[in-house]
């Protein structure tokens, strides 16, 4: 955990594991993974989230001063605009051993709640239950991603349900299952996000960024989430799909670690 979080107890994890999910819209900005990872490494976030097949691109960079690795351990097929007839969230084999061999500081796994998909939810619960004792055995922090989704047939692919009444119990369940870190979506009313933090029972909460948003919108959202008690963020597309992913990374870092205002973060983003 000390390799993942700064001395202030905060963390910015840049998610670059999107290619794991067989969804073409996720590949924008990461067509060249080596270049994408090197760009983010130079911007110096706390961590980078990667799949097993791409993690060596980070860990092969010489020297000690580079972001910690967060290893994605499950691959799902829920991200397209049309859901397939069979949904899955499949855990990789020997996930924690793979994480240890890759020198990861943390593993991450989904806890998905989609409307009328109890089998998928059950599989995710089983995945967390399998991971937890392995993580304890190896001393590996477990990040659980409790995600509540809207119906695909009415809202398209992979759209977040920001209903606090659904997010809070799923976050609490993730903690009860053994999560060391919670990666959860923002709720509809950001001023109520402290209730999500409270549901995490002292475990650090890192809100997820979701789809690409306008610069000032995502910076304002981040500032408000930090004011509500979040311990950092896990953002992917709002960094890697940005015209200046390095400057955007630094802008988010100033909010997470320095308490910068939106105006100050925008100045960093503009290179001022």
UniProtKB/TrEMBL annotation:
Pfam family membership, one: DeoC
Domain of life: Bacteria
SMART domains, alphabetized: DeoC (SM01133)
InterPro entries, per database record: Aldolase_TIM, DeoC/FbaB/LacD_aldolase, DeoC/FbaB_aldolase, FbaB-like
SUPFAM superfamilies, alphabetized: Aldolase
MF term (GO), any: fructose-bisphosphate aldolase activity
Protein's recorded name: Aldolase
Taxonomic placement: Bacteria, Bacillati, Bacillota, Bacilli, Bacillales
